[in-house]
């Protein structure tokens, strides 16, 4: 079955808001036979959607699955272009790998790749990213900004603001941003961002942004290696979260903030970033590829560079590092 038609049928039934729609009406609207509609409904049932059939009057949608499939996201979307093309599979190696291939093949801005489970999810520097089945948001978003490659790290900061706002809207819990790419709640990591590039020396062709969010994990869903450092939105909010609705909200803010960034730069977003940050004002240890620096994080520049005041009073600009809090 064509994914888009399946999505349209579900969307139509959601919009009907509990009123039945007949098989004939759906058949007429989508230009296919009633038997074809019936077959689609059967396949949707196999995917976890359910319908009440009211005699002679038609179908009412009564249940949707707890997934991030394309139909569920489409129904919740409020964007102009982000999320209008969704590549969804239950299991993927890494959404990043697939999104890179899609971007190389010309996929447009706002295309997303999303799954229920990653078998080879990755973080920065090829670290492993644990992606438990059916519990999180494991997604890559393709951007096509007209910016030079050296500005791309700022995209991570812009995305962190978008994610923080979306999580706050949907769950009522506001994470803190740990520079550059983590969101924490009560000091534990709930979200990681991985910004990768396809670029020529002077021009970005695509940014492939990987977003991993622990959403409906119980404490027992975390492996030994991360159980003390990770948390989920369900653990902290006490609520089961509709992951597809959260994806839609994330795309809403990513569309707004990325457009603003490309037009006006990071500066107008900087104060919002700072208000969500748990890094600024703290004494931290920054481990870069070459060195370790310890000092007080005093701010970020208008270009998103972290400013560290070292113990001898000098200010060091940190472009990329892993940071931990120092006592
Ligand atoms: P990072 O390198 O900053 O963080 C990776 C580290 O985080 C790991 O070494 C581990 O200690 C810890 N970790 C691993 N899994 C989890 C988890 N589920 N929750 C909390 N902590 C964890 C952060 O990299 C960027 C992660 C991006 C993940 C997305 S998911 C969709 C996309 N596809 C893909 O393969 N990666 C991205």
From TrEMBL:
Residues in BPL/LPL catalytic domain copies: 71-262
Record GO terms (molecular function): biotin--[biotin carboxyl-carrier protein] ligase activity
EC number: 6.3.4.15
Residue ranges for the DNA-binding region feature of this UniProt entry: 23-42
Gene3D superfamilies linked to this entry: 2.30.30.100, Bira Bifunctional Protein, Domain 2 (3.30.930.10), Winged helix-like DNA-binding domain superfamily/Winged helix DNA-binding domain (1.10.10.10)
Keyword Membrane: no
Amino acids binding biotin: 118, 122-124, 189
Recorded superkingdom: Bacteria
Pfam family, one: BPL_C
Swiss-Prot/TrEMBL keywords: ATP-binding, Biotin, DNA-binding, Ligase, Nucleotide-binding, Repressor, Transcription, Transcription regulation
Chemical reaction(s) catalysed: biotin + L-lysyl-[protein] + ATP = N(6)-biotinyl-L-lysyl-[protein] + AMP + diphosphate + H(+)
NCBIfam families for the chain: birA_ligase (TIGR00121)
Family membership: Belongs to the biotin--protein ligase family.
Its job: Acts both as a biotin--[acetyl-CoA-carboxylase] ligase and a repressor.
The protein's name: Bifunctional ligase/repressor BirA
Organism expressing this protein natively: Viridibacillus soli
């Amino acid at each position: 079955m064509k994914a888009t038609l399946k999505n349209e049928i579900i969307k139509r039934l959601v919009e009907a808001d509990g009123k039945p729609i007949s098989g004939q009406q759906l058949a007429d609207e989508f230009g296919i036979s009633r038997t074809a509609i019936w077959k689609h409904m059967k396949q949707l049932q196999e995917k976890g959607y359910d319908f009440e059939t009211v005699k002679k009057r038609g179908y009412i949608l009564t249940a949707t699955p707890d997934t991030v499939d394309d139909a569920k996201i489409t129904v919740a979307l409020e964007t102009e272009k982000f999320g209008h093309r969704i590549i969804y599979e239950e299991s993927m190696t890494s959404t990043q790998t697939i999104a890179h291939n899609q971007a190389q093949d010309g996929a447009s801005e706002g295309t997303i790749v999303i799954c229920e489970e990653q078998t080879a999810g990755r973080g920065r520097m090829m670290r492993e990213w644990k992606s438990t089945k059916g519990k999180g948001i494991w997604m890559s978003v393709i951007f096509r900004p007209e910016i030079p490659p050296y500005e791309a790290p700022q995209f991570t900061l812009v995305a962190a603001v978008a994610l923080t706002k979306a999580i706050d809207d949907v769950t009522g819990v506001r994470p803190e941003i740990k520079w550059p790419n983590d969101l924490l709640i009560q000091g534990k990591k709930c979200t990681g961002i991985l910004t990768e590039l396809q670029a020529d020396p002077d021009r970005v062709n695509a940014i492939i942004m990987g977003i991993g969010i622990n959403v409906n994990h119980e404490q027992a869903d975390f492996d030994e290696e991360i159980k003390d450092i990770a948390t989920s939105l369900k653990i902290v909010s006490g609520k089961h979260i509709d992951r597809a609705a959260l994806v839609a909200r994330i795309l809403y803010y990513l569309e707004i903030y990325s457009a603003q960034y490309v037009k006006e730069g990071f500066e107008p977003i900087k104060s919002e970033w700072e208000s969500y940050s748990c890094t600024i004002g703290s004494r931290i240890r920054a481990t870069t590829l070459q060195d370790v620096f310890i000092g007080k994080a005093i701010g970020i520049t208008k270009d998103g560079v972290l400013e560290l005041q070292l113990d001898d009073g000098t200010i060091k600009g940190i472009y990329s590092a892993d940071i931990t809090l120092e006592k």
